[in-house]
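WARN no homologs supplied; continuing
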Amino acid sequence: MRIPAPIFFLVIILTLTPNLRGQIILNEIMFNPPGNENHNEFIELLNTGIDPVDLSGWNVSDQDASDEIVGTGGGLVLQPGQYAIILDSDYFLNSTVYDTFIPGAALILTINGPTLGSRGLSNSNAETISLISSTGDTVTSYRYSPGNPDGISDEKIIPNIMNNAENWADSKEIPGSPGARNSVTPPDFDLSVTSINADPPYPHAGQSITFSVTVRNNGIHTPSAATLSIFFDADKNGLFTMGEILDEFQLDVAGLSVFGDSVIIEYTWLPPTAGTIQLSFVVSSTPDEAPDNNIQILTLSIPDKENQLKLNEIMYQPLSDSPEWIEIVNTGSSEINLDNWLIKDKTRATPAVISESHVIIQPGGFVVLTGDSSRLAGKFTSTFAIIEVDDFPALNNDEDEITLAEPSGRISDKVDYNSSWGSNRGVSLERILIGGPSNSRMNWGLSTDPAGATPGKPNTLSISGIPSNIIIVPDPNPFSPTRRSEVCSISVSHPLTQSLVTMKIYDRYGRLIRDLLRGELRGSVFSVTWDGKNNNGRLMLTDIYVVYFNAQSTLTGENIEYKTTVVLVN
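OK structure emitted
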């Protein structure tokens, strides 16, 4: 049946107009261009449809004025997937700023007036840019917001979806992306692992962990297939091999069909070991244009027991040129990552974070915490592990409470010290029994080290158990200062955890030969040396000598003594 001409024309309008509204879009607006604003503004169009569109008679408007789009020698037909750049009419004689950026496949257009819109596009006031078809219909429009730096355009993020402000962003590049894919437009195909949540986030040995893994579609289109793989670095070599795969999940791509869609995969696992472990979560999809975001690695630090880290030494009353500090020790058999561990004193409401990066403390290892690492390191000849803690707690000289906590806030150790435990400027408080009670005065005492402290090494008072009796062993015995240039090292262990010690050398007739210690503070295990000389520095003759030991407890007043012999040969 022949359709009458007026009806046929109406059918064409009803068919084409909705198609053009979705097919030809505003894709980029350069309203604050680099260089001269009178020549370098541009408007970019994109044909997102499957049919060519003739732009003859089309106009662009800035709401105050409208300009007809005209060609520059390449015609006015915009092909499917093709970009069109509408440049100022003055650009061609006065500027070349975009010449090396616009691809050869782009359609270059201009306008029949001197500027885009009324006196150009405003940098100070928001304007609505509209694209008007040859029939006078507004095909699409976008109201930009001023404030962009020079050379930064407004770009559409996803070309073929809504034209609201949320789907536009500032260009990531100067001078925008004229005639090419926008710098803010995501790839066509791209899945990524965006987050991993562990429950519990800070597990202990023997606890199962449930991981919630979020996979997100960062691409414009839906992949045909996708897989999430989970690996455990069992040999701790930093590599994840197929032999270390824990599980694999085929993802439902229907739930990832739109840009921004995400799915969550849950997986429960019991770690086979304590210490620092690493897992890798890898999403694989077909196709994938951005593989760099396919992997996330999760590092967990799993203590092998509760209260594994202990407070071991406290410098709360340093010399005037030294900082306060606290030493912690790893008493377990697995390493601990100090990332996000916490330290506080009694007056602090919010604890200080020990470290915001991975710092490993090995089994039996020491780490010293302070607010001034450079001053602390300069006070001791030996090197040791130091962490400078931001907002390190200020330690009181009369009394204070120090709390060491896991990242979860669970307390690992706490010490409520006061000056009656030992107070001497420049001398630290040392823990005696590592397994003993933290809040017992009997388990802490002043360091007997000549430097006043033992940061980064075993305490002078440290013992694994209290000796049940007195043991004094000279070695070597006999010893020869002249023949072999030997000195005698006298090892001492006794049941008083902290005492004032006197040690003397007598000859066989009971005459005092040498004072080795005169009422000096010592722990229950220590050693002294005798070079075979008397108090006047004279080398003694070959003979048997008596080693006398006396100790008086600074805690209970208990007094003990012991004697043994050593042979000197000259």
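Residues 1-18 have pLDDT under 50 and may be disordered.
OK
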